[in-house]
Each structure stands twice: as C-alpha cells, then as structure tokens.
Amino acid sequence: MIQRMLDEAARAHPAECCGLLLGTGARIDALRPAANVAAEPGRTFEVEPAVLLAAHREARAGGPEVIGYYHSHPTANPAPSATDREHSTGDLRIWAIIAGRQVAFWRDTVNGFEPVDCRASGD
Predict the structure, then answer these.
(1) Of these residues, 16, 48, 86, 114, which one is catalytic?
(2) Would residue 16 show up in a list of annotated catalytic residues for this protein?
C-alpha cells in the first residue's frame, strides 16, 4: 500500500492526491483513491464527497471502516501542515501524508496530530 500511495502522489503531482484508508481498528486493509476537489489542489486537499459517502455506506452495510485519509504534500515534508492542523477534528482517524518518497502516519487527536508507527505487512 505504501508504494501505491507513492504512485498516486506521483501521478497527481503538482496537485495533492487524496483518498481514504479502509480497514478495521488500526489495520489498513485497502486504499480508496478519490478526486481532489479542493479549490486549490496544489496547496490543499478535499476528498470527493461521493467517494466518502459511498465508503461510509459500505461500512454501515458491513464493509471495511473508513479509518483515515491519505494525501500528498508535493512541495513539503510528510508532516501535518498548518492547513492540516486547522482541519483536525480530533476524531482519532489516521492520516497518511506522502512527500517525496516518504509516507508518514499520524493520528488526529484532540491534542493535535501524533505520529503513528506503521508496519507494512505486504503491498
């Protein structure tokens, strides 16, 4: 999945790519790419609402949960930006941030983003 996120970011460059992290608990089992519908996709991201709604419907029907989001930082590092911090909700979801050839994982907590140790179990 790491390589897939890196590939998504490369394809979207110079815009930010974005999508959903699907799984159960803290385990990421799948990615769901989404169009970045932000007004300024080179500076920020907004997941296409139809993709997000469909994923939540599927979860309610017994499918995988939306456990987080991923997006890229085309010209920055893989850490939450000021814009990311402004959009933090403290919902405990995971944010994967891609920059260059790195992917870093963060948990959105009520006290801001905290780094998460992620171990790949296969792609």
Answers:
(1) 16
(2) yes
